[in-house]
Amino acid sequence: MKDIFSRTNKIIKEKNVPINVVVELTRRCNLDCLHCYNFKDDSELDFYQMKHIFNELRAAGCLFLTFTGGEVFIKEDFLDILGLARHLGFDVEIITNATLINEKTADELKSLCLSNIGISIYATSSSIHDKITGVKGSFYRTMHSIEMLRSKGLNLHLKCTLMKYNFAEYKKIVQLAESLNVNYIIDPIISPKDDGSKDVLSCRLNDSQLKDFYFDLFGQIEYSSDNKSGAVCDAGCTFAAVSAKGDIYPCIQVPVSAGNIFEKNFKNIWTESEVLNKIRIEAKYGPSVCKDCYLRDSCSRCPGLALLEDGDMFGCSRTACSIAKFQKCFKEEKLKNHEEKIGE
Amino acid sequence: MDYLKEPKLIRNSKVAWQEIDDAIVVVTPWNKQIHIISETASMLWRALALPKSEKDLVTLIVQEYEIDEVRAEQDIRTFIKESIEKGIVDIKE
Q1: Alpha-carbon torsion A104, A106, A112, A113, what sign?
Q2: Which DSSP helix (H) or strand (E) runs through B68?
Q3: Sheet bearing B52-53, strands edge to edge
Q4: Per DSSP, which regions of A193-308 are E strands?
Q5: Contact (CB<8Å) B30/A17
Q6: Cross-chain Cβ contact B16/A90 below 8 Å
Q7: Per-position DSSP letters for A158-211, written without gaps between them
Q8: Which of A4, A15, A25, A300 counts the highest number of beta carbons within 10 A?
Protein backbone atom coordinates (compact mmCIF):
# COMPACT_ATOMS: atom_id res chain seq x y z
CA MET A 1 0.00 0.00 0.00
CA LYS A 2 2.89 2.31 0.85
CA ASP A 3 4.32 1.62 -2.61
CA ILE A 4 1.19 2.70 -4.41
CA PHE A 5 1.07 5.93 -2.34
CA SER A 6 4.66 6.83 -3.14
CA ARG A 7 4.24 5.85 -6.80
CA THR A 8 1.15 8.06 -7.16
CA ASN A 9 2.89 10.90 -5.35
CA LYS A 10 5.88 10.55 -7.65
CA ILE A 11 3.63 10.69 -10.73
CA ILE A 12 1.92 13.85 -9.41
CA LYS A 13 5.30 15.54 -8.92
CA GLU A 14 6.94 14.32 -12.11
CA LYS A 15 4.00 15.23 -14.30
CA ASN A 16 3.33 18.53 -12.49
CA VAL A 17 -0.30 17.55 -11.88
CA PRO A 18 -2.10 20.63 -10.44
CA ILE A 19 -3.57 18.57 -7.63
CA ASN A 20 -4.06 21.62 -5.35
CA VAL A 21 -5.81 24.73 -6.63
CA VAL A 22 -6.87 27.85 -4.76
CA VAL A 23 -9.71 29.83 -6.26
CA GLU A 24 -10.04 33.51 -5.39
CA LEU A 25 -13.80 33.63 -5.81
CA THR A 26 -14.29 37.30 -5.10
CA ARG A 27 -12.29 40.33 -4.03
CA ARG A 28 -15.24 41.87 -2.24
CA CYS A 29 -15.12 41.67 1.54
CA ASN A 30 -17.32 42.85 4.39
CA LEU A 31 -14.27 43.49 6.58
CA ASP A 32 -11.43 45.95 6.10
CA CYS A 33 -8.43 44.27 7.72
CA LEU A 34 -5.34 46.36 8.38
CA HIS A 35 -2.96 43.77 6.93
CA CYS A 36 -4.98 42.61 3.89
CA TYR A 37 -2.87 41.97 0.78
CA ASN A 38 -5.75 41.92 -1.65
CA PHE A 39 -6.65 44.28 -4.46
CA LYS A 40 -9.71 46.25 -3.50
CA ASP A 41 -12.06 45.86 -6.46
CA ASP A 42 -15.28 44.07 -7.34
CA SER A 43 -13.79 41.26 -9.45
CA GLU A 44 -15.44 37.91 -8.90
CA LEU A 45 -16.32 34.64 -10.58
CA ASP A 46 -19.96 33.69 -11.12
CA PHE A 47 -21.56 30.24 -11.13
CA TYR A 48 -21.23 29.68 -14.90
CA GLN A 49 -17.63 30.84 -14.97
CA MET A 50 -16.93 28.49 -12.08
CA LYS A 51 -18.58 25.61 -13.93
CA HIS A 52 -16.16 26.21 -16.81
CA ILE A 53 -13.21 26.45 -14.41
CA PHE A 54 -14.20 23.26 -12.59
CA ASN A 55 -14.39 21.29 -15.83
CA GLU A 56 -10.97 22.53 -16.90
CA LEU A 57 -9.38 21.83 -13.51
CA ARG A 58 -10.95 18.41 -13.24
CA ALA A 59 -9.58 17.44 -16.66
CA ALA A 60 -6.12 18.64 -15.64
CA GLY A 61 -6.04 16.44 -12.51
CA CYS A 62 -7.06 18.79 -9.70
CA LEU A 63 -8.45 17.10 -6.59
CA PHE A 64 -8.06 19.60 -3.74
CA LEU A 65 -9.83 22.95 -4.11
CA THR A 66 -9.65 25.84 -1.68
CA PHE A 67 -11.99 28.79 -1.99
CA THR A 68 -10.81 32.12 -0.71
CA GLY A 69 -11.58 35.79 -1.19
CA GLY A 70 -12.27 38.57 -0.31
CA GLU A 71 -15.01 36.98 1.72
CA VAL A 72 -16.55 33.98 -0.02
CA PHE A 73 -19.91 34.16 1.76
CA ILE A 74 -20.52 37.63 0.37
CA LYS A 75 -21.44 35.88 -2.88
CA GLU A 76 -25.08 34.86 -2.93
CA ASP A 77 -24.40 31.85 -5.18
CA PHE A 78 -21.51 30.53 -3.10
CA LEU A 79 -23.38 27.50 -1.76
CA ASP A 80 -24.43 26.56 -5.31
CA ILE A 81 -20.79 26.80 -6.39
CA LEU A 82 -19.72 24.63 -3.44
CA GLY A 83 -22.45 22.11 -4.26
CA LEU A 84 -21.25 21.86 -7.86
CA ALA A 85 -17.62 21.45 -6.78
CA ARG A 86 -18.55 18.61 -4.43
CA HIS A 87 -20.81 17.00 -7.02
CA LEU A 88 -17.91 16.94 -9.50
CA GLY A 89 -15.72 15.11 -6.98
CA PHE A 90 -13.43 17.85 -5.63
CA ASP A 91 -12.24 17.83 -2.04
CA VAL A 92 -13.20 21.30 -0.83
CA GLU A 93 -11.81 23.63 1.80
CA ILE A 94 -12.91 27.22 2.36
CA ILE A 95 -11.26 30.21 3.99
CA THR A 96 -13.63 32.70 5.52
CA ASN A 97 -14.04 35.27 8.28
CA ALA A 98 -17.27 33.40 9.15
CA THR A 99 -19.18 36.57 10.01
CA LEU A 100 -21.88 35.87 7.40
CA ILE A 101 -22.58 32.25 8.35
CA ASN A 102 -26.01 31.66 9.89
CA GLU A 103 -27.62 28.45 11.17
CA LYS A 104 -29.12 27.56 7.77
CA THR A 105 -25.79 28.08 5.99
CA ALA A 106 -24.01 25.98 8.63
CA ASP A 107 -26.47 23.11 8.04
CA GLU A 108 -25.89 23.31 4.31
CA LEU A 109 -22.12 23.31 4.80
CA LYS A 110 -22.48 20.23 6.98
CA SER A 111 -24.45 18.42 4.28
CA LEU A 112 -21.79 19.31 1.67
CA CYS A 113 -19.17 17.38 3.67
CA LEU A 114 -16.33 19.87 3.30
CA SER A 115 -12.85 18.83 4.18
CA ASN A 116 -12.10 21.91 6.26
CA ILE A 117 -13.11 25.47 7.01
CA GLY A 118 -10.30 27.88 7.83
CA ILE A 119 -11.55 30.80 9.91
CA SER A 120 -9.60 34.03 10.29
CA ILE A 121 -9.43 35.26 13.86
CA TYR A 122 -6.91 37.70 15.27
CA ALA A 123 -7.54 37.85 19.00
CA THR A 124 -9.57 36.48 21.85
CA SER A 125 -11.05 39.87 22.65
CA SER A 126 -13.32 42.05 20.55
CA SER A 127 -11.33 45.24 21.13
CA ILE A 128 -8.20 43.89 19.39
CA HIS A 129 -9.90 41.74 16.76
CA ASP A 130 -12.35 44.47 15.71
CA LYS A 131 -9.55 47.02 15.55
CA ILE A 132 -7.73 44.78 13.04
CA THR A 133 -10.82 43.97 10.96
CA GLY A 134 -12.08 47.57 11.05
CA VAL A 135 -15.62 46.37 11.79
CA LYS A 136 -17.21 46.60 15.21
CA GLY A 137 -19.01 43.40 16.22
CA SER A 138 -16.99 41.19 13.84
CA PHE A 139 -15.34 39.31 16.71
CA TYR A 140 -18.64 38.20 18.22
CA ARG A 141 -20.04 37.22 14.84
CA THR A 142 -16.94 35.15 14.03
CA MET A 143 -16.89 33.50 17.47
CA HIS A 144 -20.61 32.72 17.27
CA SER A 145 -20.07 30.99 13.90
CA ILE A 146 -17.04 29.06 15.18
CA GLU A 147 -19.06 27.70 18.10
CA MET A 148 -22.06 26.91 15.88
CA LEU A 149 -19.98 25.13 13.21
CA ARG A 150 -18.10 23.21 15.88
CA SER A 151 -21.32 22.12 17.57
CA LYS A 152 -22.48 20.71 14.25
CA GLY A 153 -19.26 18.70 13.95
CA LEU A 154 -17.65 20.50 11.00
CA ASN A 155 -13.87 20.35 10.58
CA LEU A 156 -12.40 23.76 11.34
CA HIS A 157 -9.06 25.39 11.84
CA LEU A 158 -8.28 28.87 13.11
CA LYS A 159 -6.07 31.13 11.03
CA CYS A 160 -4.34 33.98 12.77
CA THR A 161 -2.05 36.48 11.10
CA LEU A 162 0.25 37.77 13.79
CA MET A 163 1.14 41.46 13.73
CA LYS A 164 2.19 44.16 16.14
CA TYR A 165 -1.44 44.77 17.17
CA ASN A 166 -2.13 41.21 18.34
CA PHE A 167 1.29 39.82 19.26
CA ALA A 168 0.28 39.51 22.91
CA GLU A 169 -2.73 37.41 21.85
CA TYR A 170 -0.79 34.67 20.14
CA LYS A 171 -0.74 32.16 22.99
CA LYS A 172 -4.38 32.90 23.77
CA ILE A 173 -5.33 31.95 20.20
CA VAL A 174 -3.52 28.65 20.72
CA GLN A 175 -5.47 28.13 23.96
CA LEU A 176 -8.72 28.98 22.19
CA ALA A 177 -8.01 26.45 19.43
CA GLU A 178 -7.10 23.80 21.99
CA SER A 179 -10.23 24.47 24.01
CA LEU A 180 -12.32 24.08 20.85
CA ASN A 181 -10.30 21.02 19.85
CA VAL A 182 -9.49 22.47 16.44
CA ASN A 183 -6.22 22.99 14.58
CA TYR A 184 -4.66 26.41 14.13
CA ILE A 185 -2.20 28.22 11.91
CA ILE A 186 -0.39 31.25 13.26
CA ASP A 187 1.43 33.17 10.56
CA PRO A 188 3.61 36.20 11.32
CA ILE A 189 4.29 36.94 7.64
CA ILE A 190 2.60 40.06 6.34
CA SER A 191 2.93 40.27 2.60
CA PRO A 192 2.93 43.48 0.53
CA LYS A 193 -0.33 44.10 -1.29
CA ASP A 194 -0.88 42.42 -4.65
CA ASP A 195 -0.65 45.84 -6.31
CA GLY A 196 2.90 46.14 -4.95
CA SER A 197 2.19 48.75 -2.25
CA LYS A 198 4.01 48.16 1.00
CA ASP A 199 2.02 50.24 3.49
CA VAL A 200 0.74 47.08 5.18
CA LEU A 201 4.28 46.11 6.16
CA SER A 202 4.01 48.62 8.99
CA CYS A 203 1.80 46.03 10.71
CA ARG A 204 4.66 43.55 10.93
CA LEU A 205 6.19 42.33 14.16
CA ASN A 206 9.56 43.82 15.04
CA ASP A 207 12.70 41.62 14.94
CA SER A 208 12.60 40.87 18.65
CA GLN A 209 8.96 39.72 18.49
CA LEU A 210 9.66 37.66 15.37
CA LYS A 211 12.61 36.01 17.09
CA ASP A 212 10.48 35.17 20.14
CA PHE A 213 7.78 33.71 17.93
CA TYR A 214 10.14 31.56 15.88
CA PHE A 215 12.17 30.37 18.85
CA ASP A 216 8.91 29.29 20.43
CA LEU A 217 7.84 27.55 17.23
CA PHE A 218 11.20 25.85 16.62
CA GLY A 219 11.17 24.69 20.23
CA GLN A 220 8.18 22.54 19.37
CA ILE A 221 10.03 20.83 16.50
CA GLU A 222 12.50 18.04 17.02
CA TYR A 223 15.75 18.66 15.17
CA SER A 224 18.34 16.07 14.37
CA SER A 225 21.85 17.04 13.28
CA ASP A 226 21.12 16.18 9.64
CA ASN A 227 17.68 17.78 9.63
CA LYS A 228 17.27 20.00 6.60
CA SER A 229 14.16 22.01 7.04
CA GLY A 230 14.22 24.17 3.93
CA ALA A 231 10.68 23.74 2.63
CA VAL A 232 10.09 22.90 -1.00
CA CYS A 233 7.52 25.21 -2.55
CA ASP A 234 5.01 23.51 -4.86
CA ALA A 235 3.79 26.74 -6.47
CA GLY A 236 3.45 26.27 -10.22
CA CYS A 237 4.32 22.56 -9.94
CA THR A 238 1.48 20.76 -8.18
CA PHE A 239 -0.12 23.94 -6.89
CA ALA A 240 -2.01 26.63 -8.83
CA ALA A 241 -4.39 29.49 -8.19
CA VAL A 242 -7.19 31.08 -10.17
CA SER A 243 -7.68 34.80 -9.57
CA ALA A 244 -11.06 36.53 -9.38
CA LYS A 245 -10.46 37.60 -13.00
CA GLY A 246 -9.66 34.07 -14.21
CA ASP A 247 -5.89 34.55 -14.35
CA ILE A 248 -3.85 31.44 -13.57
CA TYR A 249 -1.18 32.07 -10.97
CA PRO A 250 1.47 29.63 -9.65
CA CYS A 251 0.03 30.34 -6.19
CA ILE A 252 -2.35 32.90 -4.72
CA GLN A 253 0.70 34.55 -3.11
CA VAL A 254 2.42 34.87 -6.52
CA PRO A 255 0.23 37.20 -8.57
CA VAL A 256 1.96 36.57 -11.90
CA SER A 257 -0.44 35.54 -14.64
CA ALA A 258 0.49 32.52 -16.75
CA GLY A 259 -2.63 33.07 -18.86
CA ASN A 260 -6.37 33.59 -18.51
CA ILE A 261 -8.68 30.59 -18.27
CA PHE A 262 -11.40 32.39 -20.25
CA GLU A 263 -9.02 33.01 -23.15
CA LYS A 264 -7.10 29.77 -23.25
CA ASN A 265 -7.56 26.16 -22.15
CA PHE A 266 -6.16 25.52 -18.63
CA LYS A 267 -4.11 22.50 -19.73
CA ASN A 268 -2.40 24.59 -22.41
CA ILE A 269 -1.67 27.41 -19.96
CA TRP A 270 -0.35 24.91 -17.44
CA THR A 271 2.00 23.13 -19.83
CA GLU A 272 3.07 25.98 -22.14
CA SER A 273 3.55 28.97 -19.85
CA GLU A 274 7.13 30.21 -19.83
CA VAL A 275 6.92 31.48 -16.26
CA LEU A 276 5.55 28.18 -14.95
CA ASN A 277 8.21 26.20 -16.77
CA LYS A 278 10.92 28.42 -15.31
CA ILE A 279 9.45 27.91 -11.82
CA ARG A 280 9.53 24.13 -12.35
CA ILE A 281 13.19 24.16 -13.36
CA GLU A 282 14.02 26.20 -10.23
CA ALA A 283 11.96 23.78 -8.09
CA LYS A 284 13.66 20.74 -9.60
CA TYR A 285 17.25 21.89 -9.20
CA GLY A 286 16.79 24.26 -6.26
CA PRO A 287 16.66 28.04 -6.63
CA SER A 288 19.86 29.18 -8.36
CA VAL A 289 19.99 32.24 -6.10
CA CYS A 290 20.30 29.94 -3.05
CA LYS A 291 23.00 27.72 -4.52
CA ASP A 292 25.91 28.93 -2.39
CA CYS A 293 23.91 30.39 0.51
CA TYR A 294 24.95 29.23 3.99
CA LEU A 295 21.30 29.44 5.07
CA ARG A 296 20.04 27.20 2.29
CA ASP A 297 19.07 24.25 4.51
CA SER A 298 17.09 26.44 6.89
CA CYS A 299 15.39 28.61 4.31
CA SER A 300 11.73 28.40 3.23
CA ARG A 301 11.86 31.00 0.48
CA CYS A 302 8.43 32.07 -0.79
CA PRO A 303 8.60 33.21 -4.43
CA GLY A 304 5.57 35.47 -3.90
CA LEU A 305 7.18 37.29 -1.02
CA ALA A 306 10.46 37.53 -2.95
CA LEU A 307 8.54 39.12 -5.82
CA LEU A 308 6.33 41.52 -3.87
CA GLU A 309 8.89 42.56 -1.30
CA ASP A 310 12.16 42.33 -3.18
CA GLY A 311 11.09 42.57 -6.82
CA ASP A 312 12.16 39.18 -8.19
CA MET A 313 10.29 35.92 -7.69
CA PHE A 314 13.48 33.99 -8.50
CA GLY A 315 15.59 36.18 -6.24
CA CYS A 316 16.42 36.23 -2.56
CA SER A 317 13.67 36.97 -0.05
CA ARG A 318 14.90 39.09 2.84
CA THR A 319 12.02 37.88 5.05
CA ALA A 320 12.90 34.24 4.35
CA CYS A 321 16.53 35.10 5.13
CA SER A 322 15.62 36.59 8.51
CA ILE A 323 13.58 33.53 9.44
CA ALA A 324 16.36 31.19 8.27
CA LYS A 325 18.84 33.13 10.45
CA PHE A 326 16.53 32.71 13.48
CA GLN A 327 16.36 29.01 12.75
CA LYS A 328 20.11 28.63 12.35
CA CYS A 329 20.69 30.63 15.53
CA PHE A 330 18.14 28.49 17.38
CA LYS A 331 19.79 25.26 16.27
CA GLU A 332 23.23 26.52 17.28
CA GLU A 333 21.99 27.58 20.73
CA LYS A 334 20.33 24.22 21.19
CA LEU A 335 23.48 22.38 20.16
CA LYS A 336 25.58 24.54 22.52
CA ASN A 337 23.23 23.82 25.44
CA HIS A 338 23.36 20.13 24.62
CA GLU A 339 27.17 20.11 24.55
CA GLU A 340 27.35 22.04 27.83
CA LYS A 341 25.06 19.50 29.48
CA ILE A 342 27.26 16.64 28.26
CA GLY A 343 30.34 18.46 29.53
CA GLU A 344 28.91 18.90 33.07
CA MET B 1 -31.24 -15.08 -6.19
CA ASP B 2 -33.58 -12.60 -7.86
CA TYR B 3 -31.31 -9.99 -9.50
CA LEU B 4 -33.61 -7.16 -8.48
CA LYS B 5 -33.35 -8.25 -4.84
CA GLU B 6 -29.55 -8.52 -4.79
CA PRO B 7 -27.93 -5.74 -2.73
CA LYS B 8 -26.37 -3.12 -4.96
CA LEU B 9 -23.19 -1.19 -4.32
CA ILE B 10 -22.41 2.36 -5.35
CA ARG B 11 -19.67 4.95 -4.77
CA ASN B 12 -20.28 7.03 -1.66
CA SER B 13 -21.30 10.40 -3.11
CA LYS B 14 -19.61 12.23 -0.21
CA VAL B 15 -16.07 11.23 -1.19
CA ALA B 16 -13.77 13.30 -3.38
CA TRP B 17 -11.75 11.56 -6.06
CA GLN B 18 -9.55 12.03 -9.08
CA GLU B 19 -7.84 9.78 -11.63
CA ILE B 20 -4.07 10.10 -11.55
CA ASP B 21 -2.60 8.11 -14.41
CA ASP B 22 -4.28 4.72 -14.07
CA ALA B 23 -4.93 4.89 -10.35
CA ILE B 24 -7.77 6.60 -8.50
CA VAL B 25 -7.06 8.85 -5.52
CA VAL B 26 -10.05 8.93 -3.18
CA VAL B 27 -10.43 11.31 -0.21
CA THR B 28 -12.88 10.80 2.63
CA PRO B 29 -13.35 14.43 3.73
CA TRP B 30 -14.84 13.61 7.14
CA ASN B 31 -11.57 12.10 8.38
CA LYS B 32 -9.23 13.58 5.73
CA GLN B 33 -7.92 10.15 4.79
CA ILE B 34 -6.49 9.49 1.36
CA HIS B 35 -7.05 6.09 -0.26
CA ILE B 36 -5.55 4.87 -3.51
CA ILE B 37 -7.31 2.43 -5.78
CA SER B 38 -4.93 0.48 -7.97
CA GLU B 39 -5.05 0.35 -11.73
CA THR B 40 -6.79 -3.05 -11.67
CA ALA B 41 -9.47 -1.99 -9.20
CA SER B 42 -9.99 1.38 -10.85
CA MET B 43 -12.23 -0.35 -13.37
CA LEU B 44 -14.53 -1.33 -10.48
CA TRP B 45 -14.54 2.26 -9.20
CA ARG B 46 -15.61 3.56 -12.60
CA ALA B 47 -18.33 0.92 -12.78
CA LEU B 48 -19.64 1.87 -9.34
CA ALA B 49 -20.76 5.28 -10.63
CA LEU B 50 -24.02 3.38 -11.05
CA PRO B 51 -25.40 0.71 -8.70
CA LYS B 52 -23.86 -2.73 -9.25
CA SER B 53 -24.32 -6.07 -7.55
CA GLU B 54 -21.38 -8.22 -6.47
CA LYS B 55 -22.22 -10.51 -9.38
CA ASP B 56 -22.10 -7.58 -11.85
CA LEU B 57 -18.60 -6.75 -10.66
CA VAL B 58 -17.47 -10.38 -10.87
CA THR B 59 -18.74 -10.60 -14.45
CA LEU B 60 -16.94 -7.39 -15.30
CA ILE B 61 -13.59 -8.55 -13.95
CA VAL B 62 -13.88 -12.05 -15.47
CA GLN B 63 -14.49 -10.50 -18.90
CA GLU B 64 -11.71 -7.94 -18.59
CA TYR B 65 -8.94 -10.08 -17.12
CA GLU B 66 -10.00 -13.55 -18.25
CA ILE B 67 -9.57 -15.04 -14.78
CA ASP B 68 -11.71 -17.81 -13.33
CA GLU B 69 -14.87 -16.90 -11.50
CA VAL B 70 -13.83 -18.27 -8.09
CA ARG B 71 -10.70 -16.12 -8.02
CA ALA B 72 -12.68 -13.10 -9.26
CA GLU B 73 -15.28 -13.57 -6.50
CA GLN B 74 -12.55 -13.62 -3.85
CA ASP B 75 -10.94 -10.46 -5.22
CA ILE B 76 -14.26 -8.65 -5.50
CA ARG B 77 -15.24 -9.58 -1.93
CA THR B 78 -11.94 -8.23 -0.62
CA PHE B 79 -12.40 -5.01 -2.62
CA ILE B 80 -16.00 -4.58 -1.39
CA LYS B 81 -15.12 -5.33 2.24
CA GLU B 82 -12.22 -2.85 2.27
CA SER B 83 -14.17 -0.19 0.39
CA ILE B 84 -17.12 -0.39 2.77
CA GLU B 85 -14.80 -0.27 5.79
CA LYS B 86 -13.15 2.87 4.40
CA GLY B 87 -16.55 4.39 3.67
CA ILE B 88 -15.85 4.96 -0.01
CA VAL B 89 -18.56 2.57 -1.21
CA ASP B 90 -22.12 2.33 0.06
CA ILE B 91 -24.73 -0.39 -0.07
CA LYS B 92 -27.67 1.07 -1.92
CA GLU B 93 -30.92 0.36 -0.09
Answers
A1: negative
A2: none
A3: B52-53, B8-11, B89-92
A4: 239-242, 248-249
A5: no
A6: yes
A7: EEEE--TTTGGGHHHHHHHHHHHT-EEEEE-PPPPPTTS--GGGGGSPPHHHHH
A8: A25
Which pLDDT tens digit goes with each residue over A2-55? 687 888 899 999 999 999 999 999 999 999 999 998 877 899 999 999 999 999
Which 44-73 residues of chain B touch chain A by CB within 8 A? Answer: none
Q: Model-level pTM?
A: 0.91
Q: How far is A282 from chain B (nearest CA, A)?
A: 24
List CB contacts (< 8 A) between A64 and chain B: 16, 27
Residue B3 confidence (pLDDT): 59
Lowest mean pLDDT among A12-21, A23-32, A71-80, A230-239: A230-239
Rounded to whole angstroms, the Cα distance separating A23 from A62 reads: 12
Q: Which of A7, A8, A55, A117 to mutate to test the interface with B (most CBs of B within 10 A)?
A: A8
Q: Where are the domains of chain B?
A: 3-13+39-92
The better pLDDT of the pair B39, A235 is held by A235
Residues of B in contact with A19 (CB under 8 A): 18, 20
pLDDT at residue number A290:
81
Nearest-Å Rg of the Cα atoms of chain B is: 13
Summarize the confidence of residues A283-289 as an average pLDDT: 81
* Beta carbon pairs, A and B, within 8 Å: 54
- Closest to B17 (Cβ–Cβ): which among A8, A89, A115? A89
Q: Cα dist. B29→A296, B19, B26, B37 in Å?
A: 36, 17, 9, 16
pLDDT for residue A227 is more than 50: no
Percent of chain A with pLDDT over 70: 96
pLDDT in tens, A187-197: 999 999 888 88
Name the amino acid, one letter, at A60: A
Task: Identify the closest residue of chain A to B13 by CA–CA distance.
Answer: A87
**A98: Cα separation from own chain's centroid:** 17
